[in-house]
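seq/struct pair 1
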Amino acid sequence: MSESKFIVKGMTCSGCMTKVTTAVTGVAGVTDVDVDISNGELTVVGESPVDPAAVHKAVNAAGYEIAS
């Protein structure tokens, strides 16, 4: 199992959390997603390492941005 963490900018409510969770859950290989809106932390779990570019693309498609 592999875990990656990202910081997502712009999330302010549970609706934001739901949008990001739904978008990232659709990324190939993702088995679990946890979003903490208090600090913007996104945790992505997969059976093997998940492609960070795919996570970035999904977050962007949901209307948010991952901090560099």
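seq/struct pair 2
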Amino acid sequence: MGEHTEFRPGDKAPNNGHYMEFGEIGVDTAILDPKHVKLRKGERFPNTSNQNRKWKMKDKGKSH
């Protein structure tokens, strides 16, 4: 089974990294001024700006 990619407040971060909020409708939905956090593996996610949002790891730039 794969690793979860969406996280709720209080969940533990699976890896070190930068995470950001995403919108209620989907990942591609633009929200104004989303929260960004830097977490270490095992740290808990903070509350989001509203209860319908979740956390997702910020995409890394792809190089080919």
